[in-house]
Amino acid sequence: MTSVERTMKALWSAWWQRWPRWVAWATMLWAVLYTGFGLACALSGTSLLYHGGDSGTSGLGWAVVAVGALGTLVSGAVVLFGLLPPLRVLLWVVCGLAGITAFSLLMDVITLMLGQGVDNWASAANKALAAVGAVLLAATARSDRMSAGTAARAPSAAPQRLQLAAWAGTLAFVPYAAMKLVWASGGTFAGITGEEMLAVSERNGASEIFLTLESWGLDPTALLAVLGVFLLWSLVRPWGQVFPRWTLLLRGRRVPRWLPLAPALLGAATLAPYGVVGVGYLALATAGLVTMRLGDFHSSGDALLVGWIGMGAFAVYGIALTIAVRSYWLRTRPACPMSVNTE
């Protein structure tokens, strides 16, 4: 390690050790900005809910104001009086509210990655701000847990039973990826051809990158599923805690906990409830208790088949990712030097 690298590492470590001091201020700043954002949307009549059309309500703006105002009061009290037990509880309450508000942010991120515009920019901005706030609120609630007398644990694998959950999440995406690749290669599945599916993508405003990959027989959502599986396994295997050799200057160093946890938490918070609710709806539709929307399919049976494949994958993967996140969180917590695993 060169002298420059040692200096940068020392500066970063010194700044990071101070995070319990500045995180409450950062949270209070976020809360003030979030309150202002909600107030601006409420007064201007900007809708933060998307219903598939132009109509909407600005009522959610006032809910955002309430969450932001509560966050401002609580984080301000933490700055003034410290992290008292009642304040910690309130921080987690506001964190939960912000997390609920950020629901489906992952879907907006995916559409942007594929070059498509989001349905409602104000709604997407609200979700992004809420997600940032949830992270800051959680960090503030745990800021007194950080101490200089802690050390990193040795990289470890999740218990075998949790790795079985990772296998379940992986295998759940196999039918989904296969279905997508059949369409991308020009085949027919569930009564719809690859050409018809490509036309649907064009009609929905798919980007040139998306359409080009489809023309090559590569479905972008299937590629995202592969990345999701990689993320899942990085949470349950030791190699997910150390940078590999090909990262050059970073090789052999510990992966910051937030690096895999941030996308994993976002994915778990979105896909698990989305998939579980979707499976519940499909169960009702299969039983004939609700009407299944055809969408672009030719029959309700075809729509149900594709729905079960997609929602089943999201539900199983989302639950597996939630389990893996909890395991990674517990296994990578800083430990007292005397208790660090040296095996």
Structure explained in plain terms:
The protein is mainly alpha-helical. The protein folds into two domains: 18-145; 160-339, no CATH class. Helices cover 68% and strands 1% of the residues. The protein contains twelve helices and two strands; from the N terminus they run αααααααββααααα. The chain has helices at 3-17, 19-44, 59-81, 85-101, 105-113, 121-141, 160-184, 194-203, 208-215, 220-236, 258-286, 300-331, and strands at 188-189, 192-193. Strands 1-2 form a two-stranded antiparallel sheet. Helix 2 packs antiparallel against helix 3 (59-81), helix 7 packs antiparallel against helix 10 (220-236) and helix 10 (220-236) packs parallel to helix 12. The protein starts with a helix and ends in a 12-residue tail after the last helix. Residues 51-56 and 338-343 have low confidence and may be disordered.
